[in-house]
Please model this.
Amino acid sequence: MLANAYLNQFSHDEQNDYLLLSYFHLVMLKLDLTQAHAIQKKLANRQLGAIQATFFQTITMFYYHLNEDGCRANSIFSKLSQQQNQTDFPQQVGLQMGIFYLLAEFQLQNQNFSVAAQMAADGIDVAKINSTTQFLENFIGNLLRWGSSIITSRLL
Model:
């Protein structure tokens, strides 16, 4: 669907959301860091709203993680985890849940399970406040996959 969209028909905020979704898609789903870098440069030069900027940084954290630049990825995580406790975007719950999900997933991939659980707990609190469960379903599914692979590797 992203490929079929005409960017010039969107408002500025909708264009930003489109680019963010494209960036997310390239980094998290396609693992295409070359194309993601091009989108990253476009987004870095655009005026983003607060929640959009935070979501951008969260995806960028994963971009660096996948590029094996742990120093930059961990630096972004530190900044974002501090911001998450101070920021509430009730009108944009989807992006906020995406941020919590990516923060928790980042920690799961780094096998920092207690930090991942804390990020998940924070996300669950926001999900409860906003009456949404989309975060829970995705995170619990990933937690179960990670947990079973860790248990299996330790048993072998």
The two ends are 42 Å apart (CA to CA). The chain has seven helices and no strands. The helical segments are 12-29, 33-44, 50-66, 70-84, 93-109, 113-129, 134-155. Residues 105 and 142 are 8 Å apart (CA to CA).
